[in-house]
Design a protein that fits this description.
mainly alpha, 127 residues
């Protein structure tokens, strides 16, 4: 074990795991990366559930928003996948990707401004 670990101080790189704005930022990035690397979205939802209720303040709305973004996005994607049989699913899948990206970008912008998500329970964009 390193000296930092023995002294009880955390390394600077451990900060992204702790509840708070940096952790929420990492989860947004993992979600966006999940559009290309699917497993990163799963890592993001796990981090969101682990840290929900621990950060306090405006960041709590981001954790609720992140969790809902994952599950609603998964639901929309499954419905779109089922509808691909009748071609309309392809268009819907693109719409789901745009919706997912927009939610993540709007969440990131609010996080960077130090603001809560206005409507984290929203099924649309949370504005």
């Amino acid at each position: 074990m390193s000296d930092a670990g023995q002294n009880g101080t955390s390394r600077q790189t451990d900060r992204w795991l702790e509840p708070g704005p940096t952790n929420a930022l990492v989860i947004y990035i993992l979600y966006l990366a999940g559009l290309v690397i699917g497993v990163s979205g799963i890592i993001g939802i796990v981090l969101a559930y682990i840290n929900r209720g621990k950060a306090g303040g405006f960041v709590e709305s981001h954790y609720a928003f992140l969790i809902r973004t994952f599950w609603i996005g998964l639901l929309y994607a499954l419905i779109s996948a089922l509808l691909m049989v009748v071609v309309v699913g392809v268009v819907l899948m693109v719409a789901v990707a745009v919706w997912f990206i927009a939610r993540c970008i709007l969440g990131l912008q609010a996080l960077q401004r130090g603001e809560a998500v206005k409507n984290p329970e929203s099924w649309f964009l949370g504005l």
